[in-house]
Amino acid sequence: MKTFIKLILITGALLLATASAAQDTPQDDSEALKLAAMEALISAPPERALPLVNKVLAGNNSIELKERALFILSQIDDEGAQQTLLELAKNPGGELQAEAIRMIGVGGNEASLASLKGIYESGDGEARDAVLEAFLIAGDKQAILDIAVSSEGDDFERAVDMLGAMGASAELRELLSRTGPSEALIEAYAISGDIEELRRMALDDSNPEIQAQAIEAMGIVGGEDANATLVQIYRDATSEEIREAALDGMLISNNDAGVLELYRSSDDPAMKRELLEYLVMMGSDDVWNIIDSALAGDQ
Amino acid sequence: MILLLALTFAVVCGEALAAGFLPANATGWHTWQVDEPNSLTAMCCSNSRRGDGSEAGCNLDSRNISFSDGGSCAATPGPLQVYVRLEDGRVKDIRMLSANCVVATDSKIADQGLVSVGENIGWFRSVVEDRSLAQSVREEALFALASSGSDSAYAYLDGLLSRR
Fold first, then answer.
1. Does residue A19 fall inside a structural domain?
2. Does A82 share its domain with A159?
3. Which of these, B65, B100, B117, B107, lies nearest to B85 by C-alpha position?
4. Which of these, A172, A263, B117, B161, could form a disulfide with A275 (CB 3.0-4.6 Å)?
C-alpha cells in the first residue's frame, strides 16, 4: 500500500513537473519579448535604434539577443554602427566575433567588407570561416578568389567550396589558371555546374588522376550533355581507370539508359558483366529485360 | 506595501486608460487615427494573390497582404491610421496604414476617430504586456512602438530591453 501511495505521489510530481516545464515562464516571456523588441527596431529611425542596440550589446544579455542586435546594427546606414560591428569583428575570440563578421556580409558596407581581408589573415579558424561566409552572403566572388589564391590546404578548399556554391565559374577558371587543377577545384566545377570546363578536363589525358576525377564530376552535373559525353568517354577509353570513372559518372547521374546502350553494344563478356552490375546497382528496371533476353538466348 | 499598491494601481489605471477609447468586449474591425499631424506614413498594401495595387484598395481580411511604403503599394503620405480586429475585446490582428490607404473589409469598420499619441502608445504597450495574446499580435504592437516617433515609446522599449 505504501508503495502504491509512493507511486501515485511520484507520478503526480512528474505530471506537475512536465506541466510546469511546458508553460511559458515569465523569464521565457521576457526574453521572447526582448528578442521581438530588438527585431522591431528594424522599423525604427537609426538615431532611435542605435542607442538601444548599443546598450544591449554592452549589457549582460543573452548571446541570442546580442546576435539580433548585431543584425539590426548591420542594417543601420551609419558610420558609428559600422564601427561597432568592426570592433566586435576584430575582437579575437570574442563571443560575438564570428556573428559580427557575418553581419558585415549581411550589411554589405564596402569599407567594412574590405576590412574583412585583414581579419581573415590574422583570425583563427572560426573567424576565417565567418569571413568566407560574409563574402558569400555579400556575393563578393573576387574577395573569395583572392583568399583562395593566397591559401593552401583546408583554407584553400573552403574558399574553393564557397566559389562552387556561388556558381562562380569565371573565378574558378581563373583559379585553375593560377593554381593548376585539384580535386577541390573539380568538385567546385561540378557544384557550380560548369560542364564545359569539366568536359575539357575529362578529355585531357595528360593527368589520368585529374581526368578520372573530372569524368566522375560530370556525373554530379548530369543532364543530357554530360550523359552523352560519359558514354562516349567510356567507348573511347584506353584504360580501365577511365572506363570505370565514366561508369561511376553514369552511376552518379543515374544514367541507366546510357549504361544499357553500352551493354547492348558491347561484345566483351567481362565488360557486359561489369555493365550489368552497374545496372543492378542503379536499380534499373531494364535489368529484368536483359535477364529475360539472356534466358531466352537473345543476348 | 504602499509602493506595491501604488504600482498596481498605476498599472491597472494605465491599462484602463489605454483601452478606454475602445468599447468593452468589442468585436470586429476598429480603427483610429493617431493625432500626430507631423508624423506621416505612406504605408499601404496590395493583395499579392491578385496583384492589386493600393489604388485597388487593401482588403484587411485577406491573408495574402504585402505591406509597403514604397512602389505600387504605397499610398499618399498621411497620418497613421491604426486598424485592429477584436474578438470579444481580445486583439487578433493589427494593421498600421496611412490614413490615405484605401481599405476594405467584409464587415463594418468601427471608427474611433482621433486618438492622442499617449493613448495610442499606451494601448500598444498594453497589448505587448498581455501574455494571453498571440505572440504575433504582441510583435505587431512592438513594431508599432518602434516605428513611432514618440519618446515614450522608446523609453518603454529601452525599459523592456533592460529587464532582468
1. no
2. no
3. B107
4. A263
Number of domains in chain A: 3
- With beta carbons less than 8 A apart as the criterion, state whether A256 and A263 touch: no
pLDDT digits (tens, 9 = 90+) for A96-140: 999 999 999 999 999 999 999 999 999 999 999 999 999 999 999
Cα–Cα distance for residue pair A287/A260, rounded to 1 Å:
9
DSSP E strands, B43-118: 44-47, 58-59, 65-68, 78-87, 90-98, 103-104, 109-115
Distances (CA, A) of B152 to A83, B122, B125: 28, 9, 10
Has residue A220 been placed in a domain? Answer: yes
Instruction: Note the pLDDT of residue B17.
Output: 36
Residues in chain B with CB shorter than 8 Å from the CB of A42 are 146
Domain boundary among A128, A161, A192: A192
Does residue A116 share a domain with residue A169?
no
Residue A114, domain CATH? 1.25.10
Q: A40 lies in a domain?
A: no
Domain ranges of chain B: 2-162
Assess whether A107 and A153 both reside in one domain: no
Determine the average pLDDT of the residues in A210-218: 97
Regarding whether A135 and A145 lie in a shared domain, the answer is: no
Identify the domain containing residue A188 by its residue range: 141-192
Mean pLDDT score of chain A: 90
| Cβ-defined contact of A43 to B163 (cutoff 8 Å) | no
CB A217 within 8 A of CB A191: no
User: Given this model, what pLDDT does residue B19 score?
Assistant: 56
Q: Is residue A120 part of a domain?
A: yes
Chain A: closest CA distance from residue B134 (Å)? 12
> Residue for cell digits 557575418?
A102
Q: Which of B84, B83, B75, B35 is nearest to B56 (CA)?
A: B75
3-state secondary structure of B66: strand
Q: Is A165 found in the same domain as A96? A: no
Overall average pLDDT of the A224-234 stretch: 95
* A62 phi/psi in degrees, rounded to 5: -65, 155
Q: Which residues pair with B83 in a beta bridge?
A: B31, B95
8 Å CB contact between B65 and B47:
yes
Q: Which residues on B lie below 8 Å from A43 (Cβ)?
A: 143, 146-147
A positions 28-87 inside 8 Å of B (CB): 29-30, 32-34, 36-45, 48-49, 51-52, 55-56, 59, 65
Q: Which residues of chain A are within 8 Å of residue B161 when distances are taken between CB atoms?
A: 34, 37-38, 52, 55-56, 65
Exposure pattern of A220-249 as b/e (b: 16+ CB <10 Å)? bbbeeebbebbbebbeebeeeebbbbbbbb
